[in-house]
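WARN retry 2 of 3 for item q-0093 after timeout on previous attempt; input resubmitted unchanged.
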Amino acid sequence: MQQLEALRRADLKALDACVEAESAVVFGLHRLERQQRKLLGRIATALGVQTEDVSLSWLAAHAPAEYREPLLERLIAREALLERVLQRQACVQAVLEYAQRLFEELRRTAVCLATASPIAYDRSGLKGATLTWIDQTA
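OK item q-0093 returned
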């Protein structure tokens, strides 16, 4: 999965690109779903059927025989696509949760490092004063 790889590499640009690409796909699917609902509503009105009763499955079941098979094939393909989208959304959610946990861990580590007082050891290996410089004469 590209998001996890980008996260492992700490490649924020690649992670942003993945999120933007998937957001565009999801947005496009939502747009198509709205168009489909409108179209099915118009079909229901034209047929004199309750709008709530008309779905793609209903349409395929009531279509003339020559249209039934192509409609059923598209319906199966649509269901498979929606399943993949839901799986991808679950993966994206997992990546986001992982990134949030990682960020929180990094934040806690940074706080610890910022508040810790570094201890220096003298040449004999005993704890010395607080480290303010490194003795490179040894």
